Q: What sequence folds into this?
């Protein structure tokens, strides 16, 4: 197998997971590979395909990808062809004749092809030794991109009697089980490598000013290539119009554009003639652009599978890249509306559950990368990534002194007060209730900005030292350990560089 890898691809070693999957296929056992995007899934069925001889049938839902793959194989001296609906009839007939003569080693087909009787008859006459399912998650009802026609293919190819190789980058436990039972793949033939991508920095930003944030980001990264995903065509168009007004060079992609325009825009982006792409999720599948430095989601996607797949288009070259998720409550409502239109009740419930997980992602205080990975594989234990918003917000500032000041101020006021009263008194701002001005704690933290003080109050609330009832703050008895026993309190809010550390949350 190594010889094939070196001879046809020029690579020295197999990557993690490839070797095992290839061995299963060569032994005639069906296998499932869950490998990250860019992990080299094609080689997992191409190398055994070459080794087994005969024909390898590759089923792929992506027409755009077929041509690239066939071109690459042909360039490496391996006879390959594809059959899809966009092809001229004469061309398809010529390929079919070649197939019968055994001229090809690989045939790429779209699932829809199997609806035709004559195609199924053709297959029965060919020497098929391996059947590959690319983007195999599309077979599963539990997948985020379920394609019924793809699922139907399964029954039709199983009768061909060849082993199957299913590959995908995103499969939750349910999807994996579903693929396994459909394709009769045993547990010991499932190879799952970590889908962790160390070079990606995940950010979540609940800003109310998405437009400004995006424009500023692009201005600050003028030389970088990036994708901005929006949910609807209308939003893509609106953003594009706004960018035109601000003279930000960009291109767009969505399913409502004529095919030539889409192709042109895609090429401009892929060839680096245009560095910013604004698109719906119609853009990206099968596009191999390695230097995407950021992926910004202007809206909340429908689930974490879609999010990870789209965000994962950043940094394929291994260099540090950012994946930023902007969202608002309105986005959640839009997704709920889409889900409401789903006919099948079981699928509707499943989608609701997936959306719930997506929303939880925006709220978690845990490492974002860890949260994503655990969604797909709950057994994988991860160290905090050190790059995501939550890891960067790690509590590393000792606010014990500030805590003492705030708690004693609150105690001296003797009555529960709302946040802005406490903040004004401790900053020494003039105030209608003049009796507070005589407190020894009045103006005790005048050098701090209101925002920073609010951050400290958040931490005190979070740790339970302060109670908030009906918007009014009071000291909890446990605060004794801070005031009398010198208990240390750490926070991720910094008094000085507060603005810098949390810029992502507080854009002006
Ligand atoms: P995927 O389909 O998993 O996203 P591809 O099959 O397109 O990924 O492979 C991604 C890139 O990695 C391709 O350029 C491929 O040639 C390269 N690649 C695959 N396997 C190896 C390997 N063993 N060594 C080096 N490069 C590899
Ligand atoms: Zn992290």
A:
């Amino acid at each position: 197998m190594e010889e094939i890898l070196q001879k046809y691809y020029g690579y020295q070693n197999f990557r993690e997971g490839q070797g095992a999957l290839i061995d299963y296929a060569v032994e005639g056992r069906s296998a499932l590979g869950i490998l990250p995007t860019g992990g080299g899934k094609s080689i997992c069925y191409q190398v055994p395909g070459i080794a087994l001889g005969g024909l390898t049938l590759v089923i792929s839902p992506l027409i755009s990808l077929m041509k690239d793959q066939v071109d690459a194989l042909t360039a490496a001296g391996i006879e390959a062809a594809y059959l899809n609906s966009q092809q001229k009839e004469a061309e398809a007939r010529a390929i079919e004749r070649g197939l019968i003569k055994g001229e090809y080693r690989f045939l790429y087909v779209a699932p829809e092809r199997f609806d035709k009787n004559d195609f199924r008859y053709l297959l029965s006459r060919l020497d098929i030794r391996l059947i590959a399912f690319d983007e195999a998650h599309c077979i599963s009802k539990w997948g985020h991109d379920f394609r019924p026609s793809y699922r139907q293919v399964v029954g039709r190819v199983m009768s061909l009697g060849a082993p199957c190789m299913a590959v995908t980058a995103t499969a939750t436990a349910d999807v994996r089980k579903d693929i396994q039972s459909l394709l009769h793949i045993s547990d010991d033939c499932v190879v799952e490598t970590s889908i962790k991508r160390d070079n990606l920095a995940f950010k979540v930003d609940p800003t109310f000013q998405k437009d400004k944030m995006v424009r500023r980001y692009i201005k600050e990264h003028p030389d970088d290539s990036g994708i901005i995903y929006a949910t609807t065509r209308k939003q893509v168009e609106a953003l594009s119009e706004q960018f035109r007004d601000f003279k930000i060079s960009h291109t767009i992609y969505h399913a409502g554009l004529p095919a030539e325009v889409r192709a042109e825009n895609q090429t401009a982006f892929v060839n680096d003639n245009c560095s910013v792409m604004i698109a719906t999720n119609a853009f990206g599948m099968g596009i191999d652009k390695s230097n995407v430095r950021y992926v910004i989601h202007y809206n909340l996607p429908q689930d974490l599978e879609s999010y990870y797949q789209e965000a994962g288009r950043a940094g394929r070259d291994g260099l540090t890249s950012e994946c930023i998720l902007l969202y608002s409550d309105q986005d959640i409502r839009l997704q709920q509306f889409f889900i409401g239109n789903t006919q099948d009740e079981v699928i509707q419930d499943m989608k609701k559950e997936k959306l719930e997980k997506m929303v939880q992602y925006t709220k978690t205080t845990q490492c974002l990368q860890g949260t994503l990975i655990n969604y797909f594989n709950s057994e994988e234990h991860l160290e905090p990534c050190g790059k995501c918003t939550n890891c960067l917000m790690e509590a590393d500032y000792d606010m014990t002194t500030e805590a003492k000041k705030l708690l004693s101020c609150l105690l001296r006021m003797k009555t529960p007060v709302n946040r802005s009263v406490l903040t004004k008194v401790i900053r020494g701002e003039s105030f209608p209730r003049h009796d507070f001005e005589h407190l020894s704690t009045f103006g005790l933290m005048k050098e701090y900005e209101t925002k920073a003080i609010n951050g400290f109050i958040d931490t005190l609330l979070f740790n339970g030292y302060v109670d908030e009832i009906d918007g009014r703050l009071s000291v909890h008895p446990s605060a004794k350990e801070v005031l009398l026993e010198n208990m240390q309190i750490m926070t991720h809010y910094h008094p000085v560089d507060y603005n810098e550390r949390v810029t992502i949350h507080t854009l002006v």
